[in-house]
């Protein structure tokens, strides 16, 4: 209530500045976003507005996806292998260092630009989108935020120009309970020795740079977790490549570290702060996954809708039957809602505002919407939706990962509930 | 094994010689719950469950990856008497009830929905069509083969006629002592393994759908497999495009009456959808049966993940929905057996069971986390297999249409 009393005069001021004549109506702002509304002289545009740079990137990526990726999507999915040429092409097009500073070889774009790139790629291939997303929003970001000058110079340029990166936190016994990780880092004077195993590691089949979370002091519990930058040639072993339901061409592997020597200089940030970096990275990384999910939803939708107006039964296009109309209208609503949540979370982050709850909500909703939209898209196309030839069933398979990785649906709900309840305790 | 058992259990107590399809001659218990089964039905359930676990289960993943049904599995279905469940003993069938067939389909689907659909089509579409509408000659010639060693296929859909089935274009021309068939069918299940095809073709397009006639066509008469589809799910079940190029079909091979094919198709699909409902039920249960034990093996935050309240409420909800789907399915089957009108209930069973199958499999993957997403565990397969339930044997929209029509007729 006190929040409302201090805010009211300012709100009244901003209302009158914009020249509105309507009487001011008191609202209960505590039911809106956690961080509450902020006051400004310049009201925001809709979330469908972007900077010129952002739009330019969106168009570039959309064209890249259509021209370079699309012809190879099915082949990559059936073979469960990502084309090296496509990955090289992504580097050449500047898609692998989206937020990295220009003087380090990056594109120095906004976070929203990165989100748009991930979305556009996912409209064509959620596997390629996953590679780009994890490389940018997890690997690049964690180094950009916590690396000292040396590490940034040493690795960000490589990551922006020619080397795929991987983010290694999960283990067989540490999924949702990430901090139960067992990979051990022993201080050996001028280097650390890493021992252990990681599981579910995306990009690991193609990566040469690995950000690995290991515990340098188990007596401190999770406060011993430290982030290390590990190069493949130091002994990172791919023990197993998983066979998956979806995002098949995205490599997901089990990694082994057997007495891997990591120089002291390769500690990312501070020893024992790794858990913080992990939470922080995943909080923003999930906006990336939300973007991937809305891309998948739209990709399926864009295949099914034209079909519904080509396919005739009972003398008319199936898209003109009322029930069908209501279904695709409903799905369009849901995709729009998920999109707005995703873009808004991205803008909140850029503004420096608290966005953890909104990011969790965006990922949760986007993953659900993606599953629903892709499921409907298969049904709308009937038998043709069920065959791999038309490409729509792939989105259905790919969408399922959204409710699992970078924090399961249950974990998102946990996060959201925790933040909401702080207001009531 | 089943046939001898069936003979010893069933025949002794029933009035012979004319055995009614709906078993209306049998005394029924009007106060029993749907969890009540005859000894024969329960025995069949056990037999199939054992067969599915011992013979099919070890081959499921490889058949799915290869997109081919193992010949020994098909042979096993015949050997166990599962390919002529309702067929009378005099035609070498197992002589069991409709609910028995439903139970067989469900039990198979808990292990492999691809094998289940082969058995479902064989029994509830092909076998039943011949039993209901075939004359004695056709029954004698085809029922024993279908029950003991020949896979059958039901050929109605075409590229231009899916939901609008009666817009079919395959043509049959009367050539004196035989018919000549020309045209093409699409989405035909079992066609890769079948030798007997029930083909719906139009003998008299001037009469519209009232020219549609059902023909029993043997593969050697010239049925050509033009293309095998690469699918999302039920990959080991062959789904093909068939071509008929001047195929000669003897006059004796008309099933039932000329021009009544459309009626047979509607009627058979009305009951066939209870079979699909059973397959969907098996899928939901199969996925659930993999995920639940995992919830009590997997620990995170020092707790079995199945003990977190959020999880508990989720699996309780799914258990409830599977139970509801089961009751809809079994009830529709019993209504049919009683001789009641069951069309609305059959449509509801299929619609609901297919929705729950997708939902349960989706949740089962989530409960198993990363492991659920791998093909190794086997749960993701149910998610892929479930999707066909909303499409074949009448899309979900068509089920809704059917239900709406029947419901609104009460208010008009």
Sum up the overall morphology of chain B in one term. globular
Extract low-pLDDT stretches of chain A. 1-32
Number of strands of chain A: 10
Strand order of the largest sheet of chain B: 1-4-5-8
Describe the model.
- The complex is a heterodimer of chains A (425) and B (412).
- Chain A is built from 13 helices and 10 strands.
- With 425 residues, chain A is α+β, with helices and mostly antiparallel strands.
- Chain A has 3 domains: 2-164, Butyryl-Coa Dehydrogenase, subunit A, domain 1, CATH 1.10.540; 166-275, Beta Barrel (Butyryl-CoA Dehydrogenase, subunit A, domain 2), CATH 2.40.110.10; 284-424, Up-down Bundle (Butyryl-CoA Dehydrogenase, subunit A, domain 3).
- Chain A has a 4-stranded mixed β-sheet. A 4-stranded antiparallel β-sheet of chain A has the order 2-3-7-6, covered by helices on one side. A two-stranded antiparallel ribbon of chain A has the order 9-10.
- In chain A, a hairpin with a 3-residue loop joins strand 2 (184-187) and strand 3 (191-202).
- In chain A, helix 10 runs antiparallel to helix 12 (392-399).
- Chain A is globular.
- The two termini of chain A are 15 Å apart.
- Chain B has 412 residues and is an alpha+beta fold.
- Helices cover 50% and strands 14% of the residues of chain B.
- Chain B has a 4-stranded mixed β-sheet with strand order 1-4-5-8.
- In chain B, a hairpin with a 3-residue loop joins strand 2 and strand 3 (178-189).
- Residues 5-24 of chain B have low confidence and may be disordered.
- Chain A binds chain B through residues 170, 174-177, 180, 199-200, 242-246, 313-314, 318, 321, 323-324, 371, 375, 378-379, 382-383, 385-389, 393, 396-397, 400-401, 403-405, 408-410, 413-414, and chain B through 157, 161-164, 167, 186-187, 229-233, 300-301, 305, 308, 310-311, 358, 362, 365-366, 369-370, 372-376, 380, 383-384, 387-388, 390-392, 395-397, 400-401.
- Chain A: It is found in: Mitochondrion matrix.
- Chain A: It is an enzyme of class 1 (oxidoreductase).
- Chain A: Residues 51-161 form the Acyl-CoA dehydrogenase/oxidase N-terminal domain.
- Chain A: Homotetramer.
- Chain A: GO terms for molecular function: flavin adenine dinucleotide binding; short-chain 2-methyl fatty acyl-CoA dehydrogenase activity.
């Amino acid at each position: 209530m006190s929040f409302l009393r201090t805010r009211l005069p300012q709100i009244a001021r901003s209302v009158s500045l914009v020249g509105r004549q309507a009487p001011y109506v008191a609202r209960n702002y505590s039911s809106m976003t956690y961080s509450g509304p902020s006051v400004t002289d310049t009201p925001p545009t809709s979330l469908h507005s972007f900077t010129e740079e952002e739009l330019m990137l969106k168009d570039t990526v959309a064209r890249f996806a259509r021209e370079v990726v699309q012809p190879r999507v099915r082949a990559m999915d059936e073979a469960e292998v990502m084309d090296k040429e496509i990955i090289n092409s992504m580097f050449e097009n500047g898609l692998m260092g989206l937020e990295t500073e220009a003087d380090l070889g990056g594109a120095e774009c906004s976070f929203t630009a990165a989100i748009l790139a991930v979305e556009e790629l996912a409209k064509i291939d959620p596997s390629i989108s996953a590679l780009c997303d994890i490389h940018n929003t997890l690997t690049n970001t964690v180094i950009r935020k916590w690396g000292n000058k040396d590490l940034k110079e040493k690795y960000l340029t490589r990551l922006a120009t020619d080397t795929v990166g991987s983010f290694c936190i999960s283990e067989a016994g540490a999924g949702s309970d990430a901090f139960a990780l067992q990979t051990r880092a022993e201080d050996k004077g001028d280097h650390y020795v890493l021992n252990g195993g990681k599981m579910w590691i995306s990009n690991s089949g193609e990566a040469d740079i690995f950000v690995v979370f290991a515990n340098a002091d188990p007596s401190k519990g999770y406060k011993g977790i430290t982030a290390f930058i590990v190069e493949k040639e130091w002994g990172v072993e791919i023990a197993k490549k998983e066979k998956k339901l979806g995002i098949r061409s995205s490599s997901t592997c089990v990694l082994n570290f057997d007495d891997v020597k990591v120089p002291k200089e390769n500690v990312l940030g501070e020893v024992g702060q790794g858990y913080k970096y992990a939470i922080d990275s995943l909080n923003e990384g999930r906006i990336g996954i939300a973007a991937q999910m809305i891309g998948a939803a739209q990709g399926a939708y864009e295949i099914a809708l034209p079909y519904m107006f080509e396919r005739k039964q009972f003398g008319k296009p199936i898209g003109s039957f009322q029930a069908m109309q209501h279904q695709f209208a409903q799905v369009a609503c849901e995709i729009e809602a998920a999109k707005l949540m995703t873009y808004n979370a991205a803008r909140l982050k850029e503004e420096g505002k608290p966005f953890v709850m909104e990011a969790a909500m965006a990922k949760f909703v986007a993953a659900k919407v993606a599953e629903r939209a892709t499921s409907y898209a298969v049904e709308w196309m009937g038998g043709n939706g069920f065959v791999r030839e038309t490409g729509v069933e792939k989105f259905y398979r790919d969408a399922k990962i959204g409710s699992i990785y970078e924090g399961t649906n249950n974990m998102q709900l946990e996060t959201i509930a925790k933040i909401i309840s702080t207001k009531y305790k | 094994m089943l046939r001898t058992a069936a003979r010893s259990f069933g025949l002794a107590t029933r009035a012979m010689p004319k055995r009614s399809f709906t078993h209306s001659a049998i005394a029924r218990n009007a106060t029993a719950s749907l969890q009540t089964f005859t000894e024969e039905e329960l025995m069949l359930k056990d037999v199939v469950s054992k067969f599915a676990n011992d013979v099919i289960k070890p081959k499921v993943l490889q058949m799915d990856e290869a997109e081919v049904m193992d010949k020994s599995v098909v042979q096993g279905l015949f050997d166990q008497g599962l390919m002529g469940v309702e067929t009378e003993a005099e035609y070498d069938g197992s002589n069991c009830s409709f609910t028995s067939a439903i139970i067989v389909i469900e039990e198979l689907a808990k292990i492999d929905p691809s094998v289940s659909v082969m058995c479902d089509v064989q029994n509830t579409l092909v076998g039943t069509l011949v039993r209901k509408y075939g004359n004695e000659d056709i029954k004698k010639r085809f029922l024993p083969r279908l029950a003991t060693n020949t896979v059958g296929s039901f050929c109605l859909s075409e590229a231009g006629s899916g939901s609008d089935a009666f817009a079919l274009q395959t043509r049959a021309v009367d050539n004196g002592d035989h018919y000549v068939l020309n045209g093409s069918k699409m989405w035909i299940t079992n066609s890769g393994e079948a030798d007997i095809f029930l083909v719906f073709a139009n003998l008299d397009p001037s009469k519209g759908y009232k020219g549609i006639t059902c023909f029993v066509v043997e593969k050697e008469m010239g049925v050509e497999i033009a293309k095998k589809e690469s699918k999302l799910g039920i990959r080991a079940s062959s789904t093909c495009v068939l071509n008929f190029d001047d195929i000669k079909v003897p006059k004796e091979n008309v099933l039932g009456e000329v021009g009544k094919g459309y009626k047979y198709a509607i009627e058979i699909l009305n009951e066939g959808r209870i079979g699909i409902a059973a397959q969907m039920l098996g899928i939901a249960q199969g996925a659930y049966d993999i995920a639940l034990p995992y919830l009590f093996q997997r620990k995170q935050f020092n707790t079995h993940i199945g003990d977190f309240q959020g999880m508990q409420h989720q699996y309780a909800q799914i258990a409830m929905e599977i139970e509801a789907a089961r009751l809809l399915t079994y009830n529709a089957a019993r209504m049919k057996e009683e001789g009641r009108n069951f069309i609305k209930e059959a449509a509801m069973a299929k619609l609901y069971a297919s929705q729950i199958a997708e939902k349960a499999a989706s949740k089962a993957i989530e409960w198993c986390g990363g492991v659920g997403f791998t093909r190794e565990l086997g749960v993701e397969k149910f998610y892929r297999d479930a999707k066909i339930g909303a499409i074949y044997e009448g899309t979900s929209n068509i089920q809704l249409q059917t239900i709406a029509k029947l419901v609104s007729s009460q208010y008009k």
